[in-house]
Design brief:
The chain has helices spanning about 20-35, 65-70, 100-105, 110-125, 190-195, 200-215; strands spanning about 10-15, 40-45, 50-55, 75-80, 85-90, 90-100, 130-135, 135-140, 145-155, 155-165, 185, 215-220. About 30% of the residues lie in helices and about 30% in strands.
Amino acid sequence: MNETPTPPCIIRTLGMMDYDDAWELQKTLQRKRIAGGIPDTLLFVQHPPVYTLGRGGQFEHLLFHEQELKEKGIAFRHVDRGGDITFHGPGQLVGYFIVDLKALYPDLHRFFRDIEEILIRTLGDYGLSASRREGITGAWVGQDKVAAIGLEVRRWVTMHGFALNVHTDLSYFEGIVPCGLSDTGVTSIEKLLGRRIELDEVMERVVVHVEEVLDRRGVWESANVGVKGKT
């Protein structure tokens, strides 16, 4: 008896890309996924420094004034994902999921928990004991948040995803109340380990756990940021 093949998830590495360009790409891919023109897709990207404020977020959680943003070279965008304000920048691994939940499972809350599980397992690969916090999405090590998650869903197809601090300059988080949480700190894999970890390496670990948790077969489309052996 032939087993049903595991559905693919296309893995695309975009390197450093302006936030607006990546946002437009996500919208395009979301439309294509809704139409059935492409498989599920995971985009890996880094962004130049940018603060993004999700639907329902509070503008007061942006602490820098407009002039300070200009001086520091940080962009600001209102975006269509859920969640409050967060930061994207170099040294952070951002993963955008274009996934049809009807084909996976029609349960958005479960998908949030599965993304958290992927990140928790990835951090565990580095000996870091990460956890969830009740009622708040993301991944924490101790009292410090190491990964943020936010999604937008249209006709059961997702976009946006997670931002995992690998060797991010954490001083950028001083300009916001991260995710609207005033009682938590922010950390990175580099800070926790006391040594630098490259994004390519973390990216590969994430894909392993995407395959495990979501039961999808990762198919690498490109390797713009130098992932060895991926074509």
